[in-house]
């Protein structure tokens, strides 16, 4: 197995020149996709939380209604 003592010389050698990792040049597209997914996730989370909050508000729970969910220990 060959060892590399100087990475700059190794990566600039004629037989090694080229992409060092797969997907070189796709970073911008991947970041754009990530940002779209991130914003979409926040939008969907907001819709779900709002619908749950609206459901609770429609039931108009009283200040002591939480006691019905407590089990006797």
Radius of gyration: 28 Å
What's the number of helices?
2
Helix- and strand-based class? Answer: mainly alpha
Strand content: under 5%
Give the strand tally.
Answer: 0
Estimate percent helicity.
Answer: 40-55%
Taken from the alpha-carbon principal axes, the silhouette is elongated
| Low-confidence spans | none
Largest sheet descriptor: none
Structure description:
The chain has two helices and no strands. The longest helix is centred in the middle third of the chain and has 33 residues, at 27-59. The protein has a domain at 25-56. It starts with 6 loop residues before the first helix and ends in a 14-residue tail after the last helix. By secondary structure, it is mostly helical. The chain is elongated.
Summarize the SSE layout with pairings.
Layout: H1 7-11, H2 27-59
């Amino acid at each position: 197995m060959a060892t590399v003592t100087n990475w700059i010389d190794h990566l600039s050698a004629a037989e090694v020149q080229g992409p060092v990792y797969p997907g070189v040049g796709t970073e911008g597209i991947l970041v754009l996709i990530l940002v779209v997914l991130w914003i979409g996730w926040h939008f969907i989370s907001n819709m779900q939380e709002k619908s749950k909050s609206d459901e609770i508000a429609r039931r108009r729970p009283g200040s002591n209604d939480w006691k019905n969910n407590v089990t006797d220990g």
